[in-house]
Amino acid sequence: MSLQAESMTASLNAPFYLKQSKVQHMKWVTREFVHVDRTACPWLIKRYVDPDAEFIFLPPDKIEEYVKKEEAIPFDVPNAELGHHGDRCSFDAIVDKYGINDAAVKELAEIVRAADTDALNAVAEAAGLEAVMTGISMISKDDHEAIEKASIVYDALYTNCKMRHIREKHLNELDRMDRKQRRQFLKTKLAEQ
Q1: How far apart are the C-alpha atoms of 13 and 110, rounded to whole Å?
Q2: Mean pLDDT, residues 20-38
Q3: CB within 8 A of 137, min separation 6: which ones?
Q4: Maximum Cα–Cα distance for the chain, whole Å?
């Protein structure tokens, strides 16, 4: 198979979120010592914007110089386009800028926003997410390891958000199923997405 054919096949078989990619192979820079928003944004960027993204974590006073020198994209730093604006966090800014129109991502954005902006009572999962990201940050050797460990948490939260939408859509069908049937039905519907 030719390289072009392999690339085309890989693209067709890629998860749906990678097919929506907007930029590629960019350097993304943010503040060191990641927490909620700075672990959620790399997950979002890798899955919806730039699957080959490279993340750089720096002290705040080094970011502006790095952005100019490397033409990096800053996120979750003061005065950045992809930063906090009003009550919305950097995750929201990325969703908006790159036109991510996925109901489960928008629901996940509510969780991230609540956990990151100290509105922990606004969404049921927020306090748990904040606690888990604090723990991940403390047990990781560096920020790269933290975002790697955090990725499974965001995958799980995203999947849970998708399942809520599936449950709402198929409520009558699910009510007639036993637990095993419901689980298989939900797994099948998730795989179809």
Answers
A1: 30
A2: 85
A3: 33, 34, 35, 39, 146
A4: 60
Please check whether residue 123 is in contact with residue 111, taking contact to mean a CB–CB distance below 8 angstroms.
yes
What is the SS3 assignment for 22? Answer: coil
Quickly state the pLDDT bin for 19 (edges 50, 70, 90).
very low
Pairing of strands 27-31, 73-74: parallel
Question: Under 8 Å CB-to-CB from 24, ≥6 apart: which residues?
Answer: 50, 51, 52
The side-by-side arrangement of strands in the sheet containing 54-58 is 54-58, 27-31, 73-74
By CB neighbour count within 10 A (0-12 exposed, 13-18 middle, 19+ buried), where does 6 fall? exposed
DSSP structural state of residue 130: H
Whether the Cβ atoms of residue 34 and residue 139 lie closer than 8 Å to each other: no
The structure tokens 């403390």 sit at 138
Q: Concatenated DSSP letters for 54-110?
A: EEEEE-HHHHHHHHHHHT-EEBSSTT-TBS-BTTB-HHHHHHHHTT---HHHHHHHH
Fill in the amino acid letter for 64: E
pLDDT tens for each residue of 36-51: 999 999 999 999 999 9
CA of residue 183 relative to chain centroid, distance = 25
CB 132 within 8 A of CB 151: no
Radius of gyration, alpha carbons of the chain:
18
